[in-house]
Design a protein that fits this description.
Blueprint (H helix, E strand, L loop, with lengths): L5 H4 L7 E2 L4 H11 L3 E5 L5 E6 H9 L12 H4 L13 H11 L3 E5 L5 E6 H5 L6 H16 L7 E6 L2 E10 L2 H10 L6 E10 L10
Parallel strand pairs: 1-2, 7-8
Antiparallel strand pairs: 2-3, 4-5, 6-7
C-alpha cells in the first residue's frame, strides 16, 4: 500500500526564528503571518526547538521571577526538544506522531537534520477531508475510465477511511502502476491497496533472435 508523504503536503516557505530573535520579534512574526508557532534554528538551519503562542503566554505569566535586565529571546521561549519528521515519512504516521506528542506542527528536516519545511495539523488533515464515496467516484470516472480508457466495470473500486482498494483486470501490465499512482495522488486518498491483474505483459523485454 502506498501512502502520501509529508514532503507532498508540507509548506516549504517556513517562517522561522534564530536563537537570538527577541520576544517582540517572535510575536510580530506570529501575528504578521497568522501562524501559531514557528521553529527556531541555529546557523546551520538545524532545528533547536519550536516557539508557540502557548510558550509566549507562559513566559509572560512567569515574568515576575525573571531578571528584568536580560532580554528574552527565542532560545528562552522555545520548547525543546523539537519533534521533527522527514519528508519521506507517511502522512498517517506523521498525524499519529502529532497526536501522540500533542503538537500542532512538525518541522520537516532533511537527512542532516536541516529545516526544509513545516507540516501543520491543517496540512496533514487536508488529505482526509473528502468522503469515501466522492473519492470512489473520482477513481472510477477520472482515473480508470477517463484516464486509462477502461470499461466502467473492469475494476472494482472500494474506499474506506481514505484507503482505496482496486480489484479487477486491466489490458496491459503497464496500466497497473499507472492506475495505482494516479489513484494515490488524488486528494483525500491516504493509501492504495493493489489487487489488479493484467492480460498482456507489455513490460517484458522481447528476446533477441540469434
Amino acid at each position: 500500500m502506498t501512502s502520501h508523504t509529508v514532503g507532498e503536503v508540507m509548506t516549504s516557505d517556513v517562517v522561522q526564528a534564530c536563537r537570538t530573535t527577541p520576544f517582540k520579534e517572535v510575536v510580530r512574526l506570529l501575528d504578521h503571518h497568522r501562524i501559531s508557532g514557528l521553529p527556531v534554528v541555529d546557523d546551520d538551519d538545524k532545528v533547536l526547538g519550536v516557539v508557540s503562542g502557548t510558550d509566549l503566554v507562559r513566559d509572560q505569566a512567569n515574568r515576575a521571577g525573571r531578571d528584568p535586565a536580560r532580554a528574552v529571546t527565542a532560545q528562552d521561549l522555545m520548547s525543546v526538544p523539537a519533534i521533527t519528521v522527514h519528508p519521506e515519512q507517511s502522512v498517517p504516521d506523521a498525524a499519529r506522531l502529532m497526536e501522540r506528542r500533542g503538537v500542532e506542527r512538525l518541522p520537516v528536516v532533511d537527512e542532516e537534520d536541516r529545516l526544509i519545511g513545516i507540516a501543520t495539523r491543517r496540512d496533514l488533515l487536508r488529505v482526509f477531508l473528502r468522503t469515501d464515496d466522492d473519492i470512489r467516484r473520482q477513481v472510477t470516472e477520472d482515473v480508470l475510465v477517463g484516464g486509462l480508457g477502461l470499461p466502467p466495470d473492469a475494476v472494482r473500486v472500494s474506499v474506506r477511511d481514505g484507503v482505496a482498494t482496486l480489484d479487477g483486470r486491466v489490458e496491459l501490465r503497464s496500466q497497473v502502476p499507472e492506475a495505482v499512482h494516479s489513484v494515490w495522488r488524488l486528494e483525500g486518498v491516504v493509501g492504495v491497496v493493489n489487487g489488479l491483474t493484467f492480460l498482456d505483459d507489455d513490460c517484458s523485454v522481447p528476446s533477441v533472435p540469434r
